[in-house]
Design goal:
Blueprint: H1 7-34, H2 40-53, H3 62-80, H4 86-90, H5 93-118, H6 122-147, H7 151-178, H8 183-193, H9 197-207, H10 212-224, H11 226-241, H12 262-276, H13 281-304, H14 308-312, H15 316-336
Helix pairs in contact: 1-2, 1-3, 1-13, 2-13, 3-12, 3-13, 5-6, 5-15, 6-7, 6-11, 6-15, 7-9, 7-15, 8-9, 8-10, 9-10, 9-13
């Protein structure tokens, strides 16, 4: 008998979680209707986190919530491309691009230096640096595959970006208001300093709906830098191990470097379509509503995945590494984004 799971069975496995996420998103939009200053996406995230940490989400919901936080999130980002055009992206300019590169490089090498000072393993230092400087979990996964990294180091690094990225969602908007940041400037700060794409979306929309577009533009500029960074370290690793005996490193040469993620390519395609002006304003408005619903579903899944008890069990040195790197990227980015013009 075949052990393969049928597509219909897989679909049935994700439905309960998606229904729960849909109810949470509906609540988010209802709250936003009564209090216009409250983003429905923020409410969706908070509801997912609260219900998840109270232990009220059955295990049967897990598959659907993970599906939402990964695949539906990517669909939402692709649709978000219809709200942007390359003329807006071009306003980053050379100074803006250099500012983003500066944040990535300072965070990447600075985090590894901090890891050495704390006596943290080089593997954990490298993976944490990759996650903080580029795009969180996906960057850590790509680097782990490229260097044949240790799974325990990857787990710690993922826990750190999840913890401090989640904290950013609530802390950065407060800091932004204290510093009297404009909506566009704050979006740039969130895009250049927060780890995962979902966390960037949650952070920017918590501050203002007008912060989302600049946040995504800056964030995806960071994501594009993942390919050369991972390729460089993958090449270095293969060069280091090429003279090793096959029985000592049986997986050497078997890993494949991650190309630019498909959802980013599709995002660039939708931006291209929007730039042509071929889509009517009514169609764009409808797409925007679908995009909001997709992002809302994704953020419920993201919130439900934040396990406070599990994160609290991390050791002191990894926590200190995560905290130090978080402060480093926040300070570096808030300084460098002042180089970016405000014409988005």
């Amino acid at each position: 008998m075949s052990s393969k799971v049928s597509p219909l069975h897989r679909l049935g496995g994700i439905v309960p979680g998606l229904v729960f996420a849909g109810i949470a998103v509906a609540c988010g939009f209802a709250v936003s209707t009564h209090w216009a200053s409250v983003s429905p996406l923020t409410v969706s995230l908070v509801l997912g986190a609260i219900v998840g940490n109270l232990g009220l989400i059955p295990h049967s919901f897990d598959s659907g919530l993970k599906f939402a936080s990964k695949y539906i999130l990517r669909a939402g980002i692709v649709l978000l491309g219809f709200q942007l055009s390359f003329s807006e992206v071009a306003h980053l300019g050379s100074r803006g691009f250099l500012a983003v590169i500066a944040v990535v490089l300072i965070t990447f090498f600075g985090t590894q230096y901090i890891a050495r000072l704390l006596g943290v393993s080089p593997g954990l230092g490298l993976l944490t640096a990759t996650g903080y400087s580029i795009c969180g979990v996906s960057a850590i996964s790509a680097m782990t595959g490229a260097i044949d990294g240790d799974e325990e180091d990857a787990t710690y690094a993922i826990a750190l970006v999840t913890l401090f990225g989640s904290i950013s969602i609530f802390v950065l908007p407060v800091l932004g208001h204290l510093m009297n940041m404009g909506d566009v400037r704050f979006g740039m700060w969130a895009g250049s300093s927060v780890h995962d794409v979902a966390q960037v979306i949650a952070t920017s929309t918590t501050y203002s709906s007008h912060s989302l577009a600049p946040a995504v533009i800056v964030k995806l500029t960071r994501v594009v830098l993942l390919a050369p960074l991972v390729a460089t370290y993958g090449y270095r690793h293969s060069r280091t191990q090429k003279h090793a005996e096959p029985h000592e490193h049986p997986h050497v040469g078997s890993q494949r470097l991650s190309p630019l993620p498909l959802f980013i390519i599709l995002f660039l395609l939708t931006v291209s379509i929007r730039t042509t002006g071929a889509i009517s304003l009514d169609a764009l408005s409808n797409i925007k509503q679908i995009e909001k619903m997709c992002l809302g579903l994704a953020l419920v899944g993201l919130g439900a995945g934040v396990n406070v008890k599990k994160l609290a069990r991390l050791g002191a040195r990894p926590i200190l590494l995560g905290l130090s790197s978080w402060i480093l990227v926040l300070v570096t980015s808030v300084i460098t984004i002042r180089l970016i013009p405000l014409h988005l």
